[in-house]
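The instructor's notes for this session suggest beginning with a concrete chain rather than abstract definitions. Hand out the sequence below and ask the class to guess, before any prediction is shown, which regions might be ordered.
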Amino acid sequence: MQLTEKHRQYWRKNLNVTAILLVIWFFVTFVVAYFARDLNFSFFGWPFSFWVGAQGALVVYVLIIGFYARYMNRLDIEHGVNEAEE
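After discussion, reveal the predicted structure:
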C-alpha cells in the first residue's frame, strides 16, 4: 500500500503529539520527582513533595491520556479515518 500525503500528515501529527506528551511524562515522572525533596512547603496540608509523588503525577497522567484521546479523535475525523463513521 502506497502512503498518500494525507497519510503522511496524519502520522507526522500523531508522532509530534506523542513526542510532546512523552516529554511531559518524562518531566513529571523523573525531573519533578527528583527535585521534590527540595520543595519544602505545605500544599493542602501535606508536604508538596509528598503530594507530587502521591497525587500530582497521577493527575498529570490522566490529563495526558484525556488530551491524547481527544486530540486523536479530532485528528481521525480530520483525516477521514474515524471508526465511528462506519
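Then share the key points. The chain has a mean pLDDT of 86. The CA atoms of residues 25 and 31 lie 10 Å apart.
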